[in-house]
Amino acid sequence: MRIGALTCIPMVDLPALFRAFRARHPLVDLHVTASVTGSTGLADDVRQGRLNIAVLGLPRTDLVGLSVRELASRPYVALLPTDHPLATATAVGLDELAGEVFIYTLPGFGNRLEVDRAYAALGTPAGW
Description:
The chain is α/β, with parallel strands linked by helices and about 130 residues long. The protein folds into two domains: about 1-60, no CATH class; about 75-128, no CATH class. The chain is built from three helices and three strands. The protein has helices at about 15-25, 40-45, 110-120; strands spanning about 1-5, 30-35, 55. A three-stranded parallel beta sheet has the order 2-1-3, covered by helices on one side. Helix 1 links the parallel strand 1 and strand 2. The protein is elongated.
């Protein structure tokens, strides 16, 4: 079985998941790989038959043609320096971060795609 996965998925314990699968199906070889183009690359690899399954992070609207099962969902957070004007806020809106420069993932990764779309909807490009 060819499996695609992101290199870091803190809310899903992939080693435990794979171990449980192997215990139930000891004759199935598991081959795990990542994609340099993130979740969009993994989804395309499943569509093209290069992978049997993938664990990725994309909204359902980007997973047309695939059978999907949600494993987990988490809200976005902004990590800010302690001296940043918004550092003590209990909640920060996307519009409040407009104009800030981010350190983030490459285009094609699910989180980056969603943040880019959210800023585009605001009419403000994200600061990469």
